[in-house]
Design goal:
Aminopeptidase; 2 domains; alpha+beta; 8 helices
Length: 266
């Protein structure tokens, strides 16, 4: 088994497509706009990839994605072999097999367990009333940011939102009394690779419990499914209301990972 950096985009895509619902984010990062911000490491058995790790440097801090299909015994060996090549500090997405591997080389923050979910029952979308959701544009950015401030103020972990994300793919929202009170958008949207990742789902604390999150996610998912075969999202396992909303919109759990931060020991 060889552990090495690889840069053959077609070879990487072929491996990721073996489990596309697990690798929605990574497939989207093959797009030209993001490709130059990616570094890929693989466990190679001859010319066959057995596991892959992505370092995505588009954001600060970078994101290390080491999530594979269940029971991949090669991933820990790959991650251990490249630990010295990872950024000094980064966010990490680690599958269950990779937990603990980086503890010797990095200080690892408490890791938060997450699910990857994928749109597996799109027929459920038809049962959701999405009539109040409208597509947002750059004129809505101040109200979007006000919503995110209200949702994440005081939270230990925030969200990742930049105004340019409205150009990556569609965002939908529900308005009440001049405010955007619920929204859902994307981090990844690639018709070339047929994938989309829903993100920045948020409902104002004053408007929760009324099904608005289900409505905006269903409205967005309906739009994305017209052009993308694989639509996914990430959600903290403890966020039971969000998981319920996603299930109501046709999403099912497809993989587990843990999210946190790593910092190289001084």
């Amino acid at each position: 088994m060889e552990f090495a950096r690889i840069d053959d985009r077609n070879q990487i895509e072929a491996y990721l497509r073996l489990h596309p619902d697990t690798h929605v984010y990574s497939l989207g990062d093959l797009e030209d706009d993001f490709w130059s911000h990616t570094t890929w490491y693989a466990a190679l058995d001859g010319s066959d990839i057995r596991a892959i790790c992505l370092v995505f440097t588009f954001y600060d801090p970078p994101i290390v994605i080491a999530v594979s299909e269940p029971d991949n015994a090669v991933m820990p060996r790959l991650l251990e072999s490249i630990a010295g090549q990872l950024p000094d500090s980064a966010m990490v997405h680690l599958g269950p097999e990779a937990l603990g591997v980086l503890d010797g080389a990095f200080e690892v923050s408490p890791l938060v367990p997450h699910w990857k979910m994928a749109l597996k029952e799109p027929s459920r979308l038809e049962a959701v009333d999405t009539s109040r959701g409208r597509q947002l544009n750059h004129d809505d950015v101040p109200r979007l940011e006000a919503l995110f401030d209200a949702v994440y103020s005081g939270a230990e972990v925030g969200n990742i939102f930049y105004p340019f994300m409205l150009a990556i793919g569609p965002y939908f929202g529900v308005e009440e009394n001049g405010r955007i009170v619920s929204t859902a958008g994307v981090h990844v949207y690639s018709t070339r690779y047929g994938v989309a990742a829903i993100a920045n789902v948020a409902t104002h604390p004053d408007a929760r419990g009324r099904g608005l999150a289900t409505a905006v996610v269903a409205r967005l998912a309906s739009e994305l499914a017209l052009r993308c075969e694989h639509v996914g999202l990430n959600v903290a396992q403890a966020n039971v209301p969000a998981i319920r909303a996603y299930r109501n919109a046709g999403f099912e759990i497809v993989a587990e990972f843990h999210e946190g931060a790593i910092t190289q020991w001084a």
